[in-house]
Amino acid sequence: MLERKERLTRAAIAAGAGWAERERAALVTEGRLPEGGWPGTMTEARQVAHSSLDERAILPPLTPDERTWMARTTYAEARRKWRTWASEVERAARRNVDED
Asked: What is the pTM of this model?
């Protein structure tokens, strides 16, 4: 059971990190900076988590509780990555203002 939980944890964290990176890249492409909180939703997290898995390789199939847990873990990791990036951007902006 622990191996399954570890595999699901790794998959959810990787999915969340990838999701945050895609959102960050989209903002950078648009020439925008992160403003406000993480823009993702739990509905999106469920989709991202689900699409990150090859469920044929997971036996037995995910339970509803595991699906919910994966979505929450994916969301939390994406939000954590986003906040880290947003904080770095904010610190860099403050340094630039202080240098002027």
From this structure: 0.86
Rg (CA), the chain: 16
Backbone angles phi, psi at 61, to 5 degrees: -60, 160
CB 52 within 8 A of CB 14: yes
Inter-axis angle of helices 64-99 and 42-51, nearest 10: 110
Spatial CA neighbour of 70 closest among 87, 58, 53: 53
Q: Which domain holds residue 81?
A: 14-99
Per-residue pLDDT of 2-12, as tens digits, reads: 788 998 999 99
Residue 8 lies in a domain: no
Residue 5 forms part of a structural domain? no
Give the separation between CA 70 and CA 50, rounded to whole angstroms: 8
pLDDT greater than 90 at residue 93? no
How many domains is the chain built from?
1
Residue 74 near residue 10 (C-beta atoms within 8 A): no
